[in-house]
Amino acid sequence: MKELVYKIADAVSGGEVVPIETAHISGVSYITIGEYGTQFLEHLASLGARVSVFTTSNPSAVDIGGALSVDEKIARGQERINKALRTMGVSTFYSCVPYEFVLTRQRTFHAWAESSAAAYINTFRDAWSDKNPGPLALLGAIAGFVPRTPLYTLEGRRPTALVEVKVGPLGSLEAGVVGALIGEKVGTGVPYVRGAVFKDEESRREFVAALSTYSAIVFAVVEGVTPNWREYREMWDPTDKVVISEEDVNAYIKEAGDVDAVYIGCPFADVDTVLWVLGEVSKRGAAKRPIYISTSPSTLKQLGKLVEKAAELNVKIFAGSCLVVSPHTRRFSSIATDSFKAAYYIPRLHGVKVVPCRRERCIDLAYG
């Protein structure tokens, strides 16, 4: 496998590589990689390939506990993927937020394939990862190194555009809109973001998720937030300036009509977000329309018996999968969500209409 990574490095980084501390692989749902992708993973496992660094995996098509219905073919295919990954030594946590338990240190090298996760550790920890394609992240995990692309160098992290955010503080939806707008307006490079104030952890997750979904960007310097932001400010040579106003954000937020379901947790919801939703629902009683919350296995475990109580209120909390990569989503015709990442992928992967709304409004729609 090392030879393959070296060959890729010859093509993209002049043959230079960097040693990595951790890896996170995407493309592990049978829905997204299908039979050929599954056979590729099985082939690597049969060759004796084993990861040489701590390696985690993205959500699968089947959740832990079976809250989401899938047909037998997909379940069998997913189990083959699981087996191949475990054989290679991958820690099958099936989470898009590995930064919850992988404490990446500043300016250490990592090979993370999930764009929102790579953008999170880049932006909020100044740990260094490019957006490695899923197969390359896995090959890098086996080899222990990846090509030294620009984001693995200090010079390659020099800010290239100044973004003035004149709206806030940013809730989850607003943070996603701002991330999407930066992605669309800047497109590539490294934005230096001034004026962004995030309400909570969830808004940070939504910001980087939308930024990396709507562009090729997986690193932004947020003034006052990103570690070493002052050093990056001194380095900057911005060629562009973008201003994002309240009017810009409001133009993306439309009044929603009837929906079949509400979805929270793309990226996976943290404990505070889940508890907030349960608090709102408890005040009103059982929701008329189901509220789905995807979260990490560790968060699900922390919630304990609250998961069963939530189910009585028509709130379905699950882990290890999400409505982006699960075929369960196809039973609906329209879904309300506060995630701009989900709003991007669900229509494309499942043909389901998605209505972006503020979290409070999303909960209202579950009762409307």
TrEMBL record:
Family membership noted in the UniProt record: Belongs to the AcnX type II large subunit family.
Catalysed reactions listed for this entry: (R)-5-phosphomevalonate = (2E)-3-methyl-5-phosphooxypent-2-enoate + H2O
Protein name (Swiss-Prot/TrEMBL): Phosphomevalonate dehydratase large subunit
Alphabetical keyword list: Iron, Lyase
Any Pfam family matching the protein: AcnX
UniProt subunit comment: Heterodimer composed of a large subunit (PMDh-L) and a small subunit (PMDh-S).
Superkingdom in the source lineage: Archaea
Species lineage: Archaea, Thermoproteota, Thermoprotei, Thermoproteales, Thermoproteaceae
EC identifiers of the protein: 4.2.1.182
Keyword Lyase: yes
One GO MF term: lyase activity
Residue stretches spanning the membrane: none
Function: Component of a hydro-lyase that catalyzes the dehydration of mevalonate 5-phosphate (MVA5P) to form trans-anhydromevalonate 5-phosphate (tAHMP). Involved in the archaeal mevalonate (MVA) pathway, which provides fundamental precursors for isoprenoid biosynthesis, such as isopentenyl diphosphate (IPP) and dimethylallyl diphosphate (DMAPP).
Residue ranges of domain Phosphomevalonate dehydratase large subunit-like in the record: 3-364
